């Protein structure tokens, strides 16, 4: 359940009637709306909001060079690789509209400094002040934003980016350096990727700060990782399930959209030191020193907000596959690009090459469904996210979601939104491959309406455990 404090931060989609937008075509026999992408630049100039909803979290990012301190908010920050531990942040580099304009001053500063600090503020006054400081200060006055927020900061530990005294969680990172993955292949020859209207920067995380009361378990970070929505018609498609294989003692990744950190189901935050009321964890500089073969220890070292994309694909034999993918985000507005990050490294059961990897490479196509809070959907995430198509050729049917036989990629027709994506590139990151998926078509169920919208909160929240 969302706390009342989060209510003002709710985001609803759609915000206007799809029937009033000529880009959406109603397909009567399927009872869906469809939009073909990319849009014309004139259309984008008028309104460049994302064409459909994707559950992206938000964060604040600071950087500093030669005494100039810059502050931005970023939508869709995502952990994209495990060893090294890499965070991707995407910034607009092309003028599309009033909303999507070049983040010149911020990106120049970060390219010079090479360091950033990604931060989370408690819901309420401090978060609102920073949001207001950002929205009321033009990009070319980025250096004025911190002062305008009125919040106090201190210097980061591994780089000079300012850290808000009020932040409860801070990720310090530096632009990824060229290196080699476990197969000896080069990674990060460049620490960024130009993708359409945006530049995606890859940061190696070298330190995490977590407020001590959270590290000790006296307070918890609460995160609702999926939107809520209520279908009002039953979906088309069929489920042909057969007895599910026994997962036995295999490693299983648990999943709940109501995530609490730390809790019995999560790792504990293993701090090296404490400073300024924060528990501090350093991440070793070399990925080989970070590798933990033990499944549990290979988990992320701390909470980072993410959602799930339901990545669907057809094998060459036209068997459907479904891979829930937490490291899925949007990195560009034009073209609209979705990037699932799929494990290719053979480290342990948690990080092993996915069947999906070969399928996406061979077909060059995938679908991305947007899940929501619903028992059947959550069960499907747990099932399909723990068993490979190689272990269960009827994985999709057994996951329990109906599938519509669509040419490009299988459609989980009970999900509200589905994107058809074309693989235009892939980036090797160390343990994961980032697939660059240009969205060609979006499909929205007709029962997704302004009155029956998806509801999403892009911020996590800290709650005191004793209340
Ligand atoms: C919530 C959740 C998120 C996941 N996120 C990822 C991810 O980002 N990348 C990845 O490679 N695997 C991820 N997985 C694991 C894959 O979904 C899982 O290994 C799946 O069985 C792969 O299927 P395949 O071998 O048929 O491709 C996730 C699993 C769950 C339950």
Short description:
14% of the residues lie in helices and 35% in strands. It is mainly beta and 467 residues long.
What does this structure look like?
The chain has helices at residues 41-46, 104-113, 125-135, 145-149, 212-215, 287-290, 355-363, 375-384, 395-399, and strands spanning 11-13, 25-27, 32-36, 58-65, 68-75, 78-81, 86-92, 115-120, 153-155, 162-164, 169-175, 179-180, 186-187, 192-195, 198-211, 219-224, 258-261, 273-275, 278-282, 309-314, 320-325, 328-332, 337-343, 365-370, 403-404, 411-412, 417-428, 432-445, 454-456, 461-464. It is mainly beta and 467 residues long. Strand 4 (58-65) and strand 5 form a beta hairpin. It is globular. The mean pLDDT is 93. Flavin mononucleotide (FMN) is lined by residues 253, 255, 308, 321, 323-327, 341-343, 354-356, 381, 385-389.
Instruction: Measure the end-to-end span.
Output: 15 Å
Radius of gyration: 21 Å
- Total strands: 30
Put simply, the count of helices is 9
Approximate helicity band: 10-25%
The share of residues in extended strands comes to: 35-45%
Shape: globular
The small-molecule ligands in this entry are:
flavin mononucleotide
Average pLDDT = 93
Largest sheet features: 10 strands, antiparallel
């Amino acid at each position: 359940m969302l706390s009342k404090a989060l209510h003002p931060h709710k985001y609803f989609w759609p915000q206007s009637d799809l029937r009033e937008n000529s880009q959406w075509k109603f397909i009567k026999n399927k009872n869906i709306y469809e939009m073909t992408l990319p849009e014309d630049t004139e259309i984008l100039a008028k309104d460049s909001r994302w064409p459909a909803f994707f559950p992206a979290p938000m964060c604040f990012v600071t950087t500093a060079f030669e005494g100039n301190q810059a502050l931005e908010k970023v939508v869709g920050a995502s952990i994209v690789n495990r060893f090294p531990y890499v965070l991707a942040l995407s910034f607009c580099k092309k003028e599309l509209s009033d909303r999507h304009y070049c983040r010149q001053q911020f990106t120049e500063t970060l390219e010079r400094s090479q360091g950033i600090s990604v931060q989370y503020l408690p819901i309420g006054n401090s978060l609102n002040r920073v949001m207001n400081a950002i929205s009321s200060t033009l990009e070319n006055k980025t250096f004025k934003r911190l002062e305008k927020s009125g919040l106090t900061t201190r210097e980061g530990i591994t780089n000079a980016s300012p850290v808000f005294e009020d932040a409860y969680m801070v990720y310090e990172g530096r632009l990824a350096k060229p290196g080699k993955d476990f197969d000896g292949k080069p990674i990060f020859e460049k620490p960024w990727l130009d993708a359409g209207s945006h530049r995606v920067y890859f940061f190696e995380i070298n330190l995490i700060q977590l407020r001590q009361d959270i590290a000790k378990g006296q307070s918890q970070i609460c995160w609702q990782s999926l939107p809520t929505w209520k279908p009002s018609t039953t979906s088309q498609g069929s489920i042909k399930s057969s007895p599910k294989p026994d997962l036995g003692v295999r490693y299983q990744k648990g999943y709940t959209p109501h995530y609490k950190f730390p809790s019995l189901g999560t790792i504990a935050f293993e701090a090296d030191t404490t400073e300024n009321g924060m528990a501090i964890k350093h991440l070793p500089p070399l990925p080989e020193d970070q590798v933990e073969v033990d499944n549990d220890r290979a988990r992320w070292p701390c909470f980072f907000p993410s959602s799930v994309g339901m990545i669907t694909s057809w094998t060459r034999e036209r068997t459907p596959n479904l891979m829930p993918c937490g490291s899925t985000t949007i990195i560009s507005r034009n073209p609209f690009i979705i990037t699932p990050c799929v494990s290719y490294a053979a480290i342990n059961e948690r990080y092993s090459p996915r069947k999906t990897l070969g399928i996406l490479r061979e077909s060059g196509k995938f679908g991305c469904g947007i899940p929501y809070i619903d028992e059947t959907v959550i069960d499907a995430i747990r099932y399909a996210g723990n068993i490979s198509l190689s272990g269960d050729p009827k994985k999709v049917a057994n996951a329990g979601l109906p599938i519509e036989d669509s040419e490009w990629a299988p459609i989980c027709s009970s999900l509200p939104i589905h994107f058809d994506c074309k693989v235009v590139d892939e980036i090797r990151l160390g343990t994961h491959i980032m697939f660059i998926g240009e969205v060609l078509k979006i499909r929205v169920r007709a029962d997704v309406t302004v009155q029956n919208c998806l509801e999403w909160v892009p911020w996590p929240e800290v709650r005191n455990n004793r209340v």
